[in-house]
Amino acid sequence: MPSSCCEKSGLERTAHVKLAGQTENVSTDIAFLERGHRGGLVVPAKITTRERIVQPFAHQRILDSVFGEQRFRSILVSVSEMQRQRQTGANAICVPGPIRLYQLHLARLSGLYYLDPPARYLERDVADHITVDTVGRLLGEDLPALTALD
Hints:
This protein has five helices and nine strands. The chain is of the alpha/beta class.
């Protein structure tokens, strides 16, 4: 059953993007798809970006190859960049280099959204290449543009 946000925008909520002529599909956490599934917004959700960071970029690359560049937009929603380190505390596990390389040479994500964005990702070497912001900004401002049907 579609949610009210999906009904208003004409999007269908699912967790899979079917690839025509393929037995495989792109599985994600949330996807808002246009009618006919020819475009939409794909939203993998992770605890940290270190957790299989290449996956959303690889999925975007597949979608770009099958449907055309940016018919689907992907954003990554993450909780934080902190990892428990033994019994003694926490360790920041930012991966700015791989994010920048994947964004420039593998596929373009439309943004990284965090409960509390890591300061490291707000620095220009990352932020000049990809939007990095809060989940609050995503829900309050960016989501309508990201799900707008072209």
